[in-house]
Amino acid sequence: MELGQSSVTYYSMTYRSSDERHGQPVRTNSRLLDKTIILLDWDDTILPSTVLRLHGVKRDQMSIPPGLKNGLLVLEKTVCKFIATATEYGSIAIITNSQPGWVDDSSSQFMPQVKALLLGLKVKVIYAQHCTAGVGATHDADCKMTAFYKYVREQFPNTEEVNIVSLGDGSCELDAAHKLQQKLPNARIKAVKLAPNPTLEVLSSQLSLLLRRFEDILTADRSSEIKLIR
Predict the structure, then answer these.
(1) pLDDT of residue 18
(2) Which of 36, 81, 95, 123 has the most Cβ atoms closer than 10 angstroms to its Cβ?
(3) Angstrom distance (rounded) from CA 200 to CA 90
(4) CB 45 within 8 A of CB 167
C-alpha cells in the first residue's frame, strides 16, 4: 500500500477527504484501534517554538511576557486535552530530532501542565538522532523513520498490520512516514502535516480540529497523507 494512495487536505481548518469530495464513503475498520500507535513531533506541533522565537524568548529566560504567558496557558489546555485523548486510543510517543533534554527543559519552562501530563501518562520521549546513532541514519527523515520503526516494533513485535498516526509540522515527518510505509507495507499509516510556523491560535485550532476528527482518521482503513493549511 502506498502512502499517497489516498490523501486528505484540511482547507482553512475544515475537513474534507478525497473520498467525500467524490461522493464515496470512507471505508472504516474499528479493529484498527486495537493496534494503534500515535507518534508526535514536538516543536511547532506541541511546543509553539516559532512563537517563542519571534518573541525573543530564550531557553533559560526566567520571565515570559504577560501576553505570551496567557496565550501559552490557553494552548496548554488544548494540548493536554489532545494528548489525553490520544492515549485513550493507543500507544503514544514524542519523537523529535531536537537535542536530548529539550522536551523536558522546554516543557518545564513554557508548558508545565503538559510536562506533568506527559510524566503522569508515562509518555515516551525519543530523541531520534541520539537513538539512531551508529545505524547509518544521517538525514533527519532517516533518523525519524528509524526511530518510528524501532518504537513500532517495540509495541507490536509480532505483526506489521498496525495503525499509525504521525503528526508533525515539517516535511521530515512526511518523508519518514513514506519510508516507514515501505518497511511496513501492511500498516495503515496516516501522516498528518500541520501548517508550518503556526501562531498560538493556529496551533490550538489545528489540534482542536484533529480532536474532532481523530476517530475518523484512526479508523480509516487505508494509509493517507493529511495536510492542514491556513
Answers:
(1) 45
(2) 95
(3) 27
(4) yes
